[in-house]
Amino acid sequence: MESRGEGPGPAGESRDMAAALRAAKQALRAELKRRLRALSEAEKRRQSRLLSRKVIGHSKYQESQRIAIFLSMQDEIETEEIIKDIFQRGKECFIPQYKPRSSHMDMVKLTSAEEISSLPLTSWNIHQPCDNDVREEALSGGGLDLILMPGLGFDKSGNRLGRGKGYYDTFLERCMHHPKGKPYTIALAFKEQICDSVPVAENDIQIDEILYEDS
User: Fold this and answer.
1) pTM summary value
2) Which DSSP helix (H) or strand (E) runs through 17?
3) How far is CA 14 from CA 5, 11, 144, 160, 188, in A?
4) Phi-psi bin for 76: left (phi > 0), alpha (psi -120 to 50), beta?
5) What pLDDT is recorded for position 4?
6) What is the pLDDT of residues 45-79, one digit of tens each?
7) Taking the C-alpha atoms of 127, 131, 136 and 140 in order, what is their torsion angle to the nearest 10 degrees?
8) Taking the CA atoms of the chain, what radius of gyration do you get in angstroms?
9) Which SS3 state, helix, strand or coil, does residue 168 take?
10) What per-residue confidence (pLDDT) applies to 100?
11) d(CA 215, CA 213)
12) Cα separation, 214 vs 204, whole angstroms
């Protein structure tokens, strides 16, 4: 006797499709991590400087007042120069505060670029405010105008492959319920992170724009 939800029929097909999507994402993540490991520190710095200039000169960045930005891991575009510029222009800066063992992330207010180095390190080696550090949370106040996002891979249609935790997809869903609506989203990528096609599910949210060296 067939077990329920297996074999032919919509439930079985749906489960097969979900498993195939997971496998495709895992395979692409492994390939992208291999590409990133092959990048020299000098090349990562070169592309990061170039992208910092692209962001700072971007009209969406210039007209935005409340900006969320990630603090970089070793295999991500370095955002330090952009963060310094946000404060130099008198804009408001928000950074991720990830909740462990969940897909929940808040964007909390940073008071200065210099403050970053004093924040505790997470298990991912990223600085972030600790849980009992009470700060303004972007969506409990005036929302956000712009989110500068990381990711592992992207395609030119705006599809994004994250690290599998769902933090940004979950956060963008919450943004859509804020009175201000969804902020403009720009992903920052090394050119090696651009793929022909990124496998996506229906609930994966597309990015408005992907910036990389040749974009």
Assistant:
1) 0.90
2) helix 10-37
3) 9, 5, 35, 22, 33
4) beta
5) 43
6) 999 999 999 999 999 999 999 999 999 999 999 99
7) 120
8) 18
9) helix
10) 78
11) 6
12) 25
Would you state the pLDDT for residue 134?
86
* Identity of residue 68: A
Nearest to 47 by CA among 195, 209, 190: 190
Cβ atoms 112, 87 nearer than 8 A: yes
Q: How far apart are CA 5 and CA 3, in angstroms?
A: 6
Dihedral Cα 156, 84, 77, 43, nearest 10 deg: 120
Determine how many CB atoms are found less than 10 A away from the CB of residue 175: 20
Residue range 114-122: mean pLDDT, rounded: 91
Rounded Cα gap, residues 30 and 52, in angstroms: 27
Residues 97/69, Cβ–Cβ less than 8 Å: no
* pLDDT mean across residues, the chain: 91
Mean pLDDT score, 169-189: 93
Q: How many Å separate Cα 70 from the centre of its chain?
A: 7
Q: Which of 82, 209, 78 is nearest to 154 (CA)?
A: 209
